[in-house]
């Protein structure tokens, strides 16, 4: 997701009518806190944006494709990835997109998923992974579970990684069991 800085003016502030923008968004933590929010799909190798969806507000977004059958974040993910259905490609998502539900919905469309899980943790073994991750920064725990969705069974991977702020949680339907070297993450606290 990204924000495009808004440089217009409000035509009718009382009714949320803005100069040439579908929906004015205010997110204090963004580098550009006021503007047009866009959800994007980008190529991981080149950084080229493959699909972009400007956010238009709750009412307008509720009528978009896939929204009737899926929550807003999953419907958005499906719209962004629609051109790649059935291709067997992998999709990486941040916490807005990351959930077991996203894995199910994308697997149903022939795509794989890897993402961060924060608040959308239904069916995710959050408690177990948090308890199983050994103390100490950089330690991990993983689990693979079989879940049912619309009569089909999928294997979902879950991982917990102990970072200095707590355990980060990940969900995935694609990965490898090949051993890898443990990478060191540079952190501003290490300086």
Describe what this molecule looks like in 3D.
It contains four helices and eleven strands; from the N terminus they run ββββββααβαβαβββ. The protein has helices spanning 58-62, 72-81, 100-108, 126-132, and strands at 2-5, 10-12, 17-18, 25-26, 34-42, 49-54, 90-93, 112-117, 140-149, 152-163, 166-172. It has a five-stranded mixed sheet, covered by helices on one side. Strands 1, 4, 5 and 6 form a four-stranded antiparallel sheet that branches. Strands 2-3 form a two-stranded antiparallel sheet. A hairpin with a 2-residue loop joins strand 10 (152-163) and strand 11 (166-172). The mean pLDDT is 79.
Beta-strand residue percentage: 25-35%
Strand order within the widest beta sheet: 7-8-11-10-9
Number of strands: 11
Largest sheet: 5 strands, mixed
Taking the alpha carbons of the first and last residues, their distance comes to 30 Å
Q: What is the N-to-C order of secondary-structure elements (H for helix, E for strand)?
A: EEEEEEHHEHEHEEE
Q: Kindly state the mean pLDDT as a whole number?
A: 79
Overall geometric form: globular
In terms of per-residue confidence, which ranges show pLDDT below 50 for 5 or more consecutive residues? none
User: Number of DSSP helices?
Assistant: 4
Structural class: alpha+beta
Name the assembly state: single chain
The value of Rg in angstroms is: 19 Å
Report the helical percentage. 10-25%
């Amino acid at each position: 997701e990204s924000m495009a800085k808004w440089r217009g003016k409000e035509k009718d502030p009382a009714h949320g009518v803005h100069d040439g923008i579908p929906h004015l968004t205010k997110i204090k933590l963004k580098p550009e806190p006021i503007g047009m929010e866009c959800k994007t799909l980008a190529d991981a190798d080149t950084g080229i944006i493959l699909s972009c969806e400007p956010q238009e507000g709750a009412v307008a977004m509720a009528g978009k494709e896939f929204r009737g059958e899926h929550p807003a974040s999953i419907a958005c993910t499906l719209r962004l990835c629609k051109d790649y259905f059935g291709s067997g490609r992998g999709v990486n998502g941040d916490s807005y997109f990351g959930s077991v539900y996203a894995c199910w919905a994308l697997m149903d469309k022939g795509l794989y998923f890897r993402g961060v899980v924060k608040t959308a943790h239904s069916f995710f073994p959050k408690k177990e992974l948090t308890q199983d991750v050994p103390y100490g920064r950089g330690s991990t725990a993983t689990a693979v579970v079989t879940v049912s969705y619309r009569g089909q069974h999928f294997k979902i991977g879950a991982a917990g990684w102990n970072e200095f702020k707590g355990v980060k949680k990940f969900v995935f339907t694609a990965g490898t069991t090949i051993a890898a070297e443990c990478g060191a993450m540079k952190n501003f606290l290490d300086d």
